[in-house]
Amino acid sequence: MAYGKSQRLRMKRRRNGQTDYRRRMKLLRGGAPRAVVRVSNTQVTCQLVEFGTDGDRILSSVTGKTLVDLYSWPTDKSRKTVPACYLAGYAMAKAATSSGYDEAVLDIGLAASSPGSRVFSALKGMVDAGLSIPHGDSVLPDDERISGMHIDDSTASAVEATKKAIEGAYK
């Protein structure tokens, strides 16, 4: 913290651990929209965001609640599991490609980038839906985890039903 009068205070979002401005500037310099993935305590949020001088513009957005309301994801299932993150990324990318966007750069914020994590399952959903995002295949989770077989059979059938509902909405 800055105590003396010659010390300069860091920006508030940096002090609170909410924004890494150096990483944000690297993402913005590319000029492509950002595919933002955030996992909260209750649900996942996937957004396609474009930088503007007056602030960021959200081009497309899907949350865990959207999966329940629009795409028949069961209410008793978690909205932040690996399959839910995959479906949220899939739905967001379908909406983005139908709006004319075909490429993006992944923005995971301050989340840890462990291979096979929920943010990378959302990335796999975006790539499977046709959005071009630079990535390595080693970070993506296996198909067993994405389909929900590691949880139970009812989750696997819910993933298939929700994926068909998403495809039906964007044909």
Q: Residue share in helices? A: 40-55%
Distance between the termini: 54 Å
Structure class: alpha+beta
Q: Estimate the strand proportion.
A: 5-15%
Q: SSE order in H/E notation? A: HHEEEHHEHHH
CATH level-two architecture: 2-Layer Sandwich
In CATH, the topology is named Nucleotidyltransferase, domain 5
Look at the structure and give the CATH class. Answer: Alpha Beta
Q: How many beta-strand elements?
A: 4
Uncertain regions spanning at least 5 consecutive residues: none
Can you count the helices? 7
Q: How is the biggest beta sheet arranged?
A: 4 strands, mixed
Number of domains: 1
Descriptive report:
The protein is globular, with a radius of gyration of 17 Å. A hairpin with a 6-residue loop joins strand 2 and strand 3. It has one domain (30-169): Nucleotidyltransferase, domain 5 (2-Layer Sandwich). The protein has a four-stranded mixed beta sheet, with helices on both faces. It has helices spanning 12-15, 21-29, 64-71, 82-98, 118-128, 143-147, 153-169; strands at residues 34-39, 44-50, 57-63, 105-107. It has 171 residues and is of the alpha+beta class. It contains seven helices and four strands; from the N terminus they run H-H-E-E-E-H-H-E-H-H-H.
